[in-house]
Amino acid sequence: MSVTTDLVATWARPRAILRQHLARGVSEPFALSFLLIFLALAFVGQWPVAAREAFLAGEPSATPRIMARAFAVLATIPVWYGLAALGHLAARAMGGRGTWYGARIALFWALACIGPLMLLQGLVAGMIGPGPGLTAVTLLAGVAFLWLWATLLHEAEHG
To answer: Which residues have CB under 8 Å from 65's CB, separation 6+?
Structure first.
């Protein structure tokens, strides 16, 4: 299946889609591609926020703010790998039998799946700004990520 089809299908049957991804065999470029999908969507989602901030500050261009966000997004790569390792260690402490690779796929795929919510969050932050709408979208994205990651990690470790 294509990535976009898998993204949509994951919300209906996350365990089955994760099993399909793990059945492809170990491929670090494949795992990294999921993380890069998320990072790209999260980065693009920050553009409206950067534009709003530049406008409110009276700056002629949002480019410096966008570039700063690009570097910030790239700087999170080691954090995501570390979080995947911590997730695997926590699952192992609770009886998990999975692999380090499975834990990375579970986390990176969960992140990729909430990428569209990151785009929505960026639009709300950029167009509406702080308030109950942004809080609701941020909460929705956070809860969706935690549910999806927990579900996928459980499948990777116990499936």
So the answer is: 50, 51, 53, 54, 59
pTM (2 decimals)?
Answer: 0.93
139-19-23-142 Cα dihedral, nearest 10 degrees: 10
Q: Show Cβ contacts of residue 133 under 8 Å, excluding neighbours closer than 6 positions.
A: 124
pLDDT tens profile 102-133: 999 999 999 999 999 999 999 999 999 999 99
Instruction: For residues 159 and 157, give the distance between their C-alpha atoms in angstroms, rounded to a whole number.
Output: 6
Question: Which of helix, strand or coil describes residue 159?
Answer: coil
Which ranges constitute the DSSP H helices of the chain? 3-12, 14-23, 28-45, 47-56, 63-75, 77-93, 100-127, 132-158
